[in-house]
Design a protein that fits this description.
alpha+beta, Pdz3 Domain, 2-enoyl-CoA Hydratase, Chain A, domain 1, six-stranded antiparallel sheet, six-stranded mixed sheet, 10 helices, 19 strands, 37% helix, 27% strand, globular
């Protein structure tokens, strides 16, 4: 039997459906509006507080106010408030310096520095082909003055800023060595960073150390790898100790000849989508691999180690890594500075994320605190000898 709906009933149903739709739409619109109002109010409170602090500083601060420094400090504090050690705000000068390092070069005199127990600055490393190496500076030399200013008087942080400068500018350092103070004047210049070194050991074991993943790292790595294999390397030790990461694109180029074809690593973003970040072609070097890591193996270097273990059966030697399985993106700001922000978590295509956990080596070996000998390297060599 056919059932018929009268015109009046049909109109009533349409009106009821429209009313329900209107009520639901109004409810969710109102809810969204209320959320936005709360958000706007919260933001207003924050900016009011900021303006209040700024006004108080300008009215009562005894010293001179550097508006540029105050602005940079505010932006740094805003990003630091995330509590993420890998997100940061860079001033225009810091951004320029970081861009230079990312390219595989740096402007300066070629020094790696640390605060000495005396409060002065100790030289911990010197780049090859740099003004510092040409002048005869040595590791453990102490910098006590910069352009005549005592380091202890101006403070470590400001002293480090004084050493930095633009290409072509000059700086005079007073160096203390064996109790004798000597002045050296340097002209700052652009210096290429050698991030890959290699050697043959035990006659047939190739050893490659990667200090960081920069734009020029793949060319250096492939050159060194080709040289080692041409000289008869039967196995490889890849040393990632102290490697604080760098560009994923550089990692991909370095890893490609060591990995089989396929998706190697992916990244998970806030909106829920996943992207392939490392892919390898079907050309693979078939050699036993040993990877050295330590607590200062971070970020991209950790992903490199995990990829080699997951896809090329590499054995990892050393101690647990830092555990930074995140990806940062850098966005330049209108003021010339930049924000470096964590935007995703990464992992290999077959393993769970090591973020916050670190990578535990297959063979755990501690190096002595005093720095005598290198048991980790020795263990890697022994493994390489048995895995031929």
């Amino acid at each position: 039997m056919n059932k018929k709906i009268t015109l009046g009933l049909a109109l009533s149903l349409v009106m009821i459906a429209s009313a329900v739709t209107f009520i639901l739409t109004s409810f969710f619109t109102l809810q969204s509006f209320n959320e936005k109002v709360v958000d706007v109010n919260e933001k207003s409170k924050k900016y009011n507080s900021l303006n209040e602090v700024d006004a108080y500083i300008r009215e009562h601060y005894y010293g001179e106010i550097n508006d540029s420094g105050l602005n940079d400090g505010t932006l740094k504090g805003l990003v630091n408030g995330l509590g993420d050690p890998y997100s940061k705000y860079l001033t225009a000068d810091e951004y320029e310096a970081e861009q230079s390092i990312e390219e595989g070069s740096q402007t300066g005199i070629g020094l790696t520095l640390a605060e000495d127990v005396s409060g002065y600055i100790r030289i911990t490393d010197i780049l090859a082909d740099s003004p510092a190496i040409e002048a005869g500076l040595l590791n453990d030399d102490i910098i006590i003055k910069i352009d005549g200013k005592d380091v202890n008087s101006i403070g470590f942080s400001d002293a480090m800023n004084e050493i930095q400068g633009t290409e072509g500018s000059s700086v005079t350092l007073t160096i203390r060595r064996n109790g004798i103070d000597t002045d050296y004047t340097f002209r700052r210049r652009s210096i290429d960073i050698q991030s890959v070194t290699s050697k043959m050991t035990n006659g047939y074991i190739g050893y490659i150390q990667i200090a960081g993943f920069r734009k020029n790292t793949p060319d250096q790595f492939l050159d060194q790898l080709g040289s080692l294999t041409a000289n008869g390397a039967k196995s490889l030790i890849i040393d990632l100790r102290g490697n604080e990461g760098g560009l994923i694109s550089a990692l991909e180029e370095c890893a490609d000849p060591l990995l089989p074809e396929g998706i190697i690593a992916t990244a998970d973003y806030k909106d829920g989508h996943t992207e392939t970040i490392v892919y390898s072609d079907d050309n693979k070097l078939d050699l036993p691999l040993i990877v050295l890591v330590d607590k200062d193996t971070v970020s991209t270097a950790e992903l490199f180690a995990a990829a080699l273990r997951d896809f090329s059966h590499a054995q990892i030697v050393g101690i647990k890594t830092r555990g930074n399985g995140t990806i940062q993106e850098t966005e330049k700001m209108d003021d010339g500075g930049a924000i470096v922000l964590t935007v995703a978590k990464c992992r290999t295509a077959v393993s769970e994320s090591y973020n916050g956990v670190g990578i535990v080596p297959d063979v755990i070996v501690e190096n002595p605190a005093g720095g005598e000998g290198d048991p980790q390297f020795d263990a890697a060599v022994e493994l390489a000898m048995t895995s031929r």
